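User: I'm curious whether this sequence folds into something compact or stays loose and floppy. Could you predict its structure so I can see for myself?
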Amino acid sequence: MIRKYCFILIPVFVLLSGCMKDDELWNFERSSYDLPFEGLFVINQGNFMYGNASLSYYDPETREVLNEVFFSTNALPLGDVAQSMVIRDSLGYVVVNNSGRIYVFRTQSFELVGKITGLTSPRYMHFINDSKAYVTDLYARSIAIVNPLSLEVIASISVNNQESGFSQHATEQMLQVDKYVYTNCWSFDNQILVIDSEKDQVVDSIEVIKQPNSMVLDRYKTLWVLCDGGSPESPYGYEQAGLMKIEAGSGKAEIVHRFSEGALPRSLKINGSGDTIYFLNEGVYRLSVLDEEAPELFIESPYPRGYQGGYYALEVDPLSSDLYLADALDFVQRGKVYRYNQAGEAVDIFQTGIGPGGFCFKP
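Assistant: Here's the prediction. I'll summarize afterward.
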């Protein structure tokens, strides 16, 4: 049986977060936690401009879920649109997109350590080493270089595409092979940028299908890229969505699979052994990285075909290969997460905050 810990302070949080400075603490008794070393964080985006993003924590062993853990511990709203999270040693870094900041907290107790500010519209964070990390951005046309030790922005990498009338390049996820960091440019774009992490410079770009929205790296150092193709109404144009791969050391992307017209695939993930990829396209599909066949439907969507809601995000447990599927429902009520084992059998379901849009496993 799942024990759910819910906090009744959410309505107050939604009403007051817009007029409250982030360093003002509310006067109430804070929660105290001492967690097991392994677990799963759920990043709840919340509603744009409402400042109601939140963090949930799930223990796969006990199946217990804790909601609003950041707020209940620190008496501090997480902010406006939590985009992603990364863990380095014992610290968690939550990138809050519309608030333009990154909160740093202890993953064992959820206690706030500090914050990184001076960012425009941050999306993802990637560590180069203990004292240098990259932060991608939706609008800045640059990648911020931050020092995680001092919590300061120390430099930036220009990615400005002055030849385009669109706001390019909007950088997203990052994956590293040796000294090279690859980042996908999703919004009104069709490029994978290659950055030399020693020189902090863009040294190459690889053209892919329009709007690459997610990437993974397999055990053979092959980069897999999922592209949604945009939409017919987009001023940037539209093409059929596709799954592509870039072999190690190659500067060219190869089309592995084309989706039917109107498909909106997203949330490409890979298992812990790096040999099987998964993604959402209404339901959950999977493909062996050595397979030349089309991706197979692994878990069907509970929604009618063509329904644009439903599963919103996907993650694969690197140890057990269990799958976690986030369902944002209507983005007004609290969302849900479905857990399946590697055989595709239902294991658990639990409630989260509003708009669960990402996951981060605590190693």
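Summary: The radius of gyration is 20 Å. The longest helix spans residues 10-16.
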